[in-house]
Amino acid sequence: MSVLESIPHAIADGHRERRLGIRWWLLVGATCAVLICGYLVSAGLIALITATATSAEFNLVVVLLAALPGWLALHQSALTITGAPLSVLPLLPTAIVMVLIAAASAWVARRSRLRRPDQAWPLIATMGLVHAFAGACIALVLAGPFSAVPVDAFLSCGLTATAASGAGVANRCGLIYLVWERVEAEVWSGLRIGLLALAAAFTAGGVVLLIGICASAPDMVASMSRFDGAGDAFGTSLLSLLYLPNGVLAGWAFAAGTGLSLGGLTVQPLHGTPGPGPLPDLPLLAVLPSQPGIGLSAVALALPLAVGVLVGLACRRVPGGAPRRLLAVGVAACIAALGVLVLAYVAGGELGGGQFSLVTLRPLALAAATMCWVALPAAAVTWFAGPVVFDEATTTSADEVESADDTVPAPDTEESEADSAAPDADATEPQAEVDDADQSTSDAEDDPDALAPESPGPEIPHAREPIAPGSTRHARSEIDPSEFDGAVDEPWPAEAGDGYESRND
């Protein structure tokens, strides 16, 4: 057997350069798939409501045409139906579409092996612009009872898709790492705790909504019984389910004290203004109390206080003195207020132009109240409770074990080095052959991440922990810097004494 015959085919062909950048055919296919999936979601919901309605006649052509303005509604684009404005749109289908866009963007980034922030913006921009132009084109061709403003459709569809696509590739392409690298440790901790505060606020709104549903269950049953048949009751129940995230936001607005308004109807803790007439027969609207009781108001006002205490307990773990912990509290309060402001603005709008037309959650007042409910209790807990004291004995023992591992003596004789190196070489040669063979067939494999020579970087740390001045350990980078700042084709330099090996991208 000759020498060449013993060399695998992939190694004999030589190293093939990895293709960098977006695979545009994948991006085009994923974008079209997301557009089609959104249209099918809209058509499916309209077909389900039309098929179960008592007095409606199911027509497939009408359903397919009505799915076009329904696609705009999925992206929170305001509509006009027979002259009546409708901008209070359900948030649950929008969340589903955003999850689809984020998943498709992450899949394209993974298949294209995108690693750096500068590789993410073409993907995000393409996904956003395609959805924006699709929304504008649909708004231009709408006729009959439905109409929409093309500029509004362009902005709403584009912003929705851009936000979802950015969230999908944020971790993969290092956007989170980019923020972590440029902010202080307490600011980074405040950003994380702010997301926790936002989730806690939504949980509190869900608790308020659940209490309202349990208290008004007879009214909801009576509202559904006034319909002609079971199909109409099912349709209104499905519509209430789609508006459930809007109800959660309304529950948080009630708990925060700012309340909500539907035309002349105002609902606030310990105060309520009756509307100009009876509410429409929608099960979710039966939850609104005409005069909130003392028990419901007391429970609702205690929930934001619990959110602030939770944020304060989380900020106690921020390293440093009291000013650093208070800075983390301020950042967390700002993040929670900003998230509530955006969602409250999206959830409000016109509702048909009738006596309950203007639906508002008072976004500015709600954001200010959220900031106060989060910042004041959290600052008090952080200031008076002090920082979390970690067990020094456990930390000392862990440092001793790590220092003992770092000071293990290396073999002195050349024979022991040869004996230890021989098995490693034998073990790595088959693996190198497999890696090169896989790289030559990378286009045919399903998971390109398994073909890349580098292993995926570790997760973003919670906070940066500085190394003590007297420590003998080397400062190791949490993430391969060549994936973000340097040229990907240059080798990663080895660090002497730490067991690092030079590796090419």
TrEMBL record:
Coiled-coil zones: none
Keyword Transmembrane: yes
Leader peptide range in chain numbering: none
Superkingdom of this protein's organism: Bacteria
Bias kind Acidic residues: ranges: 432-449
Ranges annotated as spanning the membrane: 24-49, 56-74, 86-109, 121-146, 193-217, 294-314, 326-346, 366-390
InterPro entries: DUF6350
Sorted UniProt keywords: Membrane, Transmembrane, Transmembrane helix
Low complexity: compositionally biased ranges: 419-429
UniProt key word Transmembrane: yes
The protein, known as: Uncharacterized protein
Organism: Saccharopolyspora antimicrobica
Species classification: Bacteria, Bacillati, Actinomycetota, Actinomycetes, Pseudonocardiales
